[in-house]
Amino acid sequence: MPIQYSSSRLSYTHETDFRQERNFGQKVSATFEFMGAHWRPLGRVMLYLVAPLALLQGILTALLQSRMLSAIRLAQPADPTNPLAAQRAMLRATFQNPLYYFNSVLGMIFISMCILTIYGYLVRCLRPVGAEVTPITPGEVWQVVRGHLVGTFFSLWGLTLVIMVGFLVFFFPGVYLSVALSLFFIVRVVEGTGFFGTIGRCLRLTKGKWWSTFGVIFIMIVLLYALLFGLNTVLGMLIAGLHGAFTPTTPGQASDIFAIVMAVFLTVAFFLLYPPLLLVLAFQYFNLVERHEAVGLLHLVGQLGQAPLASPDGSTYRPQEEGEY
After folding, report:
1. Is 235 within 8 Å of 242 (Cβ atoms)?
2. For range 192-220, the mean pLDDT
3. Could you report how far apart the first and last alpha carbons of the chain are, in Å?
């Protein structure tokens, strides 16, 4: 029977730190413990690999919204009696603009890079017991990202299609698949399975554990959206003040500035808030694998009789830690 290890003071630098059975609260707390232990190297990796795409995505989204607003303003004086004129103008400005399709493709690449950067970093943390702990570099993570980027990009479209079919056939299959397949990318990156093999693996792992998977997703989304709502409220108050200052003279430009700032803010917020959701799904995956297969226990059994792990030097501790004596 799989055992449950203590999660106190884990460094999350070896595979056995991840492959553990965890209850509901431990999966959420492990997510923030991991981020607390690795925020600096993980942040550096994301800054190198994801931040440029996040900035480009925010700018393109802002430009697209600006053009949509301009089309609406031009349509309203031309036909003020038709309430649908502005809506048709907005749709034309969206779907007839090549920027919309380019932005959609770039958005999928951006999401793929977010997923693979987080999980690529996590995979590099899955060191065997006794392995030397060295800082994880952007180059090491890029090797993982490069090997999975094309497959992840097309898998996003494939998963979208599968889930949409589930919703079209009947609402509840779509909901079930949305939760069960939330483990798709961590399974694919860690186990290296193909598209349909990964789907089957996700369905087997979540069988009987669908509600717990839904629960950790729901709680994490609520926590992140509460934080995002607070940030959005503060920014909205600042933007409203600027909007009121500009509106008497240049209402159109004020609306454009508001849309651009909000688009960039939402893209950056997604960039910052998406990692905790991916990480809690990763800990759910390791929890389910351990319950089904006891992989972590087998790793520990395999290490019996080997030399103990060397004590890490002072550089591996966080400032508030005292080390070993």
Report:
1. no
2. 94
3. 34
